[in-house]
Write a structure and sequence with these properties.
Distance between the termini: 112 Å
Number of strands: 21
Shape: globular
Number of helices: 11
Strand content: 25-35%
CATH topology of the largest domain: 2-enoyl-CoA Hydratase, Chain A, domain 1
CATH superfamily of the largest domain: 2-enoyl-CoA Hydratase, Chain A, domain 1
CATH class of the largest domain: Alpha Beta
Oligomer: single chain
CATH architecture of the largest domain: Alpha-Beta Complex
Number of domains: 3
């Protein structure tokens, strides 16, 4: 009888303990579900997005996959399905600069910033449903073949390029050195055909030359080596006693934002505003010069054209707004948004527009571009005869 009482008491204690545990787990789950907590090695942290705000119906996605798997007459590649799901989700955001990159595409993107890859040497972007040339890299196959900024790519190797993503177009255009790719482009309403032989594209982002007593710094992109190479170029030109500097940003598609800030700092006093980022109209970040102003006071002209985009426009806008440089050439491309690359667990990455950038005077140039102080256009005859009236004008301005 005593054993039975003890047994019943023990059972009630166990039942009560289990009830407390179940209640705690239920309440914790409800709290996590409401506030979006995540578990990490560092403990629990709170995210700012509540799950209850999500309007995506994952049940319908699973339903589509289930029907596809059960009814599709053919082999399904699980990796391609997963990448396609992510790509479709990102494309639906409707922003040409926000895109999902597969593992292979992420590597290609990294290679672009380091300046080493095999292809034709042209930066591409999305314009509505079409892929267009932002800029051909000077001296490489696309440039030598005659591709120009704003050329619309209609076909790649005889196949329509309509509605391709930039990554898909790049994948089709790139290939081993020595092989060729056929492109049909539309320029000013006219159809043009090009057959371009691919090559190894390996170049430093900054090159320097001296013409008389004028130094010329050519920046082809803003990559991982740009800040250091630009500083070395500034030191070299100062040691040679140049009287003025031309910064050639023509056909520079942009790249790393921080690199453009570092280059702008070569002319600006410490802590001067280079670029401001805004999200939803509200300021989220201001990037200022770092005081490494080796070229402060140096008469400077910046060359821009329709292929000067993104980080190039940030540099040109900052130097112009602070009145330390004059702009010569043609109106720039007009890309006024900032992208961040987020590494994904599956090996790919997300390049996502996180803000809009504004010049020190508060101008966002998205789709408008920056107008030069002195407009000088390049004609077909100039391209054909290797003439450069823009560069000539910049040098004459400094003399």
């Amino acid at each position: 009888m005593e054993k039975t009482k003890k047994s019943k008491k023990t059972n009630w204690l166990i039942f009560g303990r289990n009830l407390l545990i179940i209640s705690f787990v239920f309440l914790l789950g409800a709290y996590i579900g409401k506030y979006g907590y995540k578990f990490s090695p560092d403990g629990i942290y709170q995210t700012s997005i509540q799950k209850s705000d999500s309007k995506l119906n994952f049940n319908e996605v699973n339903e589509v996959y289930s029907q596809l798997r059960n009814n599709f007459d053919g082999q399904l590649d699980e990796q391609k399905l997963n990448d396609g799901l992510k790509r479709g989700l990102v494309n639906a955001a409707g922003d040409p600069y926000t895109e999902f990159l597969s593992r292979e595409e992420s590597k290609d993107f990294s290679d672009d910033l380091s300046g080493t890859f095999e292809g034709i040497g042209a930066e591409l972007s999305k314009n509505d449903k079409y892929v267009e040339v932002v800029s051909p890299i000077s001296g490489f196959p696309a440039d030598k073949a005659g591709l120009r900024s704003k050329d619309i790519i209609a076909e790649i190797n005889g196949e329509s390029a309509y509605d391709l993503s930039v990554s898909e177009a790049v994948k089709k255009i790139r290939g081993p050195k020595g092989t060729s790719v056929k492109l049909k482009v539309v320029r000013d309403g006219k159809s043009l055909d090009f057959e371009i032989t691919r090559d190894k594209i390996s170049l430093p982002s900054v090159t320097t030359e001296v013409v008389g007593d004028i130094g010329i710094i050519k920046i082809s992109r803003f990559g991982t080596d740009t800040a250091e190479l630009s500083r070395k170029s500034a030191q070299e030109l100062k040691s040679k006693g140049v009287k003025g500097v031309v910064v050639d940003l023509r056909n520079n598609p942009g790249g790393l934002l921080d690199a453009s800030v570092d280059v702008a700092s070569l002319w600006l006093d410490d802590n001067q505003l280079v670029v401001e980022e805004k999200r939803g109209g509200k300021s989220v970040r201001k990037l200022n010069s770092n005081g490494d102003n080796l070229l402060k006071g140096m008469p400077t002209v910046v060359l821009i054209n329709s292929g000067s985009a993104s980080a190039s426009e940030i540099l040109a806008g900052a130097l112009s707004d602070h009145k330390v440089a004059q702009l010569v050439g043609e109106k720039s491309y007009g890309k006024g948004s900032v992208q961040q690359v987020v590494e994904l667990s599956g090996g790919g990455s997300l390049k996502v527009t996180i803000a809009r950038w504004y010049t020190p005077k508060g101008k966002n140039i998205d789709k408008e571009g920056i107008k030069p102080d002195v407009e000088v256009k390049m004609t077909d005859n100039d391209y054909k005869n290797k003439l450069d009236p823009q560069k000539d004008t910049a040098i004459s301005k400094l003399k």
